Amino acid sequence: MTKAERALETRERILTAACEVIADIGFENVSMRKVAEHAGVSKALLHYHFDTREKLFAEAMTHSFAQTGTDTEGVPDSVPSSVVLARILRSMLPTDSELRQDWKLWQELWVRAQRDTAARHLAVDLYDQLHAWVGGAVERGIRSGEFADCDVTALGTLVLALCDGLGIRLMLDDPRVDLAAARSTIWRAIAPTLGIAPEFPDV
């Protein structure tokens, strides 16, 4: 392994550890020492890669987002656009333990964004990427004739709003909303616009 590869591996290990610690105890309770211990590196090495908690938090959010996101580029044409969109929706809800951790980080970001300009810009940038993922799947379906022509931006805004609202209910373990109900609610809301069946695809 080259020096550059070792540095990249260390950086990835630190970011993974930061995601886990922030999700577990919240950003306000996180210290660089705790992250270093969890990552199995020295505090000096951690500071070499990330000189402040704020930079570490921003990088950790971006890292977590990239790991759980679903891109629409490079998907084989044989995969229906409805399946691609359903996969994106799956990644945008707290579907499993990894995505629940991602959601905890999002919740931390929402809180910080209320009083920190850098965090607010980061949140907006990440939402732009979510819009691009949803919009890419919808545009793909429109081009193939699978979806009806529609206002892609408006539909993306609706999808993100529904995912946020229902995702919070799922994170709260609200007994009135389970994962199947959340998916079904979102799909039924967008199906008429897309001109597709209201049943959530089997993905």
Please characterize this protein's 3D structure.
- With about 200 residues, this protein is mainly alpha-helical.
- It has two domains: about 5-60, Orthogonal Bundle (Arc Repressor Mutant, subunit A); about 70-195, Tetracycline Repressor, domain 2 (Orthogonal Bundle).
- About 70% of the residues lie in helices and about 0% in strands.
- It has nine helices and no strands.
- The longest helix has 28 residues, at about 115-145.
- The radius of gyration is 19 Å and the shape is elongated.
- The relative contact order is 0.11.
The CATH architecture category of the largest domain equals: Orthogonal Bundle
- What's the tally of helices? 9
Q: From the alpha carbons, calculate the radius of gyration and give it in angstroms.
A: 19 Å
What is the percent of helical residues? over 70%
**What is the name of the CATH superfamily of the largest domain?**
Tetracycline Repressor, domain 2
- Written as H for each helix and E for each strand, in order along the chain, the element string is HHHHHHHHH
Summarize model confidence as the mean pLDDT. 92
What do we call the CATH topology of the largest domain? Tetracycline Repressor, domain 2
Class inferred from helices and paired strands: mainly alpha
Q: Would you kindly provide a brief summary of this structure?
A:
The protein is mainly alpha-helical. It has nine helices and no strands. Residues 31-50 bind DNA.
